Amino acid sequence: MQQRQQPWPKPIKVLSVYRCQFSEYSLKTDNRQLKTENSFNSPNMKSISVLALALLTSSLAFAQQQPNDEVLNGLIRQSIQYYPQLKQQQQALSLSESRTQMAEAARKPSVSGDASYQYIWPLQRVTFEIPGLGSNAIQFAPRNNYNVGVSVSQTVYDWGKDAANIDKARTESLLSQQNVDLATHQLAYQVAQVYFSIVYLQKAITVQRAQESLVGETAKVIENRIKSGDEIDYNLVATNVRYKNVRTRIVDLQTQLDRQFILLSSLVGKDVRSTINAEAGFAWSSLVTPQDSSNVDNNWDLRLAKTRELVAEKDIQIAKAAKLPTFSFNGSTGFRNGFQPEIKEFRFNGGVGFRLSAPIYAGGRHQIQEDIARKNLQLSQYGTETASVQIHTQLEQAQSELRSTTEKLRLSETQLQEAQYGLQLANVRFQNGVITQLEIQSAQTALEEAEFQRIQYQYQQALARLELNRLIGTKIW
């Protein structure tokens, strides 16, 4: 049975920030080098400067990512060995192979052993008078009849009936094998998709926890500045609201991460929480960039639809052959009584013969069956055309999504650099007392958004590549 691929979930849009620490930074503008040191006299101002500068190299946080090949390939292999639905498809394949063997057995002779007993009454006999000898009787069969023997039957020629049935059974066996391959294909890609979702959510949680720490430190700085009369309560309230929003996002992301871990564990048959670490990335060597991405001949949905057409064609051949005669051989041998003149004596006997059987009239059932088979073939052909259109549409969408996310990822790098540059400027202005704490927080937020957009585009790019490889039938297990 064909398993339909579930649509990929949309990435979760979350604002994020990484945290790292610097004691100094460099800023280039108008071909001049501006170097600023964190040398504030006030401890509060120094803390604020460190927190602001913590965002400058946030892009390095996930620069070193562990390859996915070993972990992800291992998870896929485990899921293929464990998943019960795949075992169900494999059992269906075994059943289909047995049906093929049954169809092939029709060409072999059928031998059976028989033993029977029959008691007859009244006796079949004729009584007549013979002059000088008196009354006599001839008995045609004994009262107790015994028969033990072996019979054999073999089809000599059936005008293609057995061949049509065997071809259909073999094609159905091929269909079952393709169902197994399709289920394996979909399971492997589902595991990969859930894996990338987990990687994405882990990175998002790491980002939000870093932001939580940053906002918490900022709140402490504002509290100290309020005590010294350099800050107002409104800024502290706004920072606390921002802190609670971050906490809420962490809870939501953690819930989604738990669900993905539960789903992946159900696919592989064991707890995988300790398998995927935070350093995992979106790169995977099993995903390829095809030279000709318009070739969908290896798409399993399309291959399955074409095989269904072949099964429907075999049904037409069987319907046509049902109108043809059958020529067979029959033979038997054994021991029985009832032979004249000693009807009670057991004797060895045997016989051979041929039989020709041909349908003459069946109320039009053969024609109706052939018409049904032809309509079923048309239905399968329309199904193949529908699958082809859908696959090409999905392929174009995947290609468009891949191009879009690749371009967005490239632009996000520029946006990230600009956000870092903007935060550097804001920090300089804040040191000089030109802007407020909330304004520097706005610069931090801009960098947070740029950082998270890059992670989100990496995730979307991985899903687009995964979908593209699924559609062209790339084997990743």
UniProtKB/TrEMBL annotation:
UniProt-annotated location(s): Cell outer membrane
Single GO term (MF): porin activity
Sorted UniProt keywords: Cell outer membrane, Membrane, Transmembrane, Transmembrane beta strand, Transport
Any Pfam family matching the protein: OEP
Any single GO CC term annotated in Swiss-Prot or TrEMBL for this entry: efflux pump complex
Gene3D superfamilies, per database record: Outer membrane efflux proteins (OEP)
Keyword Transmembrane helix: no
PANTHER family: OUTER MEMBRANE PROTEIN TOLC
Family designation: Belongs to the outer membrane factor (OMF) (TC 1.B.17) family.
Protein name: TolC family protein
Organism this protein belongs to: Siphonobacter curvatus
